[in-house]
Amino acid sequence: MSGCARSTLIALSVVQTVALAQAVERTTPTYPPVALSGTRSSAHRAIESALPSVGTTLDRVAYAVDGAESSHGADLTMWRPDPSAPQGPMQVSEAAAADVGGGDRFDSMENRVIGRAYLAQLFQRYKNWPDAIAAYNWGMGNVDNWVKAGRPADKFVIGVAGYLRRASR
Predict the structure, then answer these.
(1) Which domains occur in the chain, in start order?
(2) Which of 39, 65, 96, 110 could cross-link 118 (Cys pair, CB 3.0–4.6 Å)?
(3) Distance of alpha carbon 69 from alpha carbon 166, whole angstroms
(4) What is the pLDDT of residues 57-106, one digit of tens each?
(5) What are the C-alpha distances in Å from 66 to residues 62, 69, 78, 86?
(6) Which of 109, 116, 97 is nearest to 29 (CA)?
(7) What are the helix and strand counts (H, E) for the chain?
(8) pTM for the full predicted model
(9) Model confidence at 153, in pLDDT bands (50, 70, 90)?
(10) Considering only CA atoms, which of 107, 10, 8, 23 is closest in space to residue 57?
């Protein structure tokens, strides 16, 4: 199967997963609950306050992103030698962590909390999951420029295809 065909199939699968997640509300989230020990800092409370707005759809999307970024923590390259690089199961950047109030992105569980909160923030900004997920990976500036340019398919596919190839390794 060619790389283009494979990327197209993966893209269709992601779109179907997001559509299904939005259409079907589940009573139990598929994403493992996050339990942080000790007292909660103001940053933790800020992160947690972002979560309820999108409910279990956020749980499923965060779980999918965790899988794409690190194979749910199984890919040890999720911890990069450069501390300023994206880190952990959700590949959280310094900027993303700061945007949602901070936290320890070098702790696997907190990394997932920060990643979920950032996804929630992106969903609130873009009002749809495909753009929020694209911004999570591609960056808000790239998505904003793509939207301002009229959403040209050839420009978006180039960025998404690279992510899909990386996520499918």
Answers:
(1) 3-167 (1.10.530)
(2) 96
(3) 8
(4) 999 999 999 999 999 999 999 999 999 999 999 999 999 999 999 999 99
(5) 6, 5, 10, 13
(6) 116
(7) 8, 0
(8) 0.67
(9) confident
(10) 23
- Strand pairing partners for 87? 92
* 98, 113, 166 from 104: Cα distances, Å: 10, 10, 25
What pLDDT is recorded for position 100?
Answer: 97
How far apart are the C-alpha atoms of 124 and 9, rounded to whole Å? 28
Tokens found for residue 77: 């390259």
* 77-106 per-residue burial string, b: 16 or more CB within 10 A, e: under 16: ebeeeeeeebbbbbbbbeebbeebbbbbbe
Question: CB burial class (10 A; 0-12, 13-18, 19+) of residue 14?
Answer: buried
Among candidate residues 13, 7, 18, the one with its CA nearest the CA of residue 129: 18
Q: Supply 22's token pair.
A: 């939005």
Give the whole-angstrom CA distance, residue 146 versus residue 35.
37
How far is residue 43's CA from residue 112's CA, in Å, rounded to a whole number? 14
Q: How many CB atoms lie within 10 A of CB 21?
A: 20
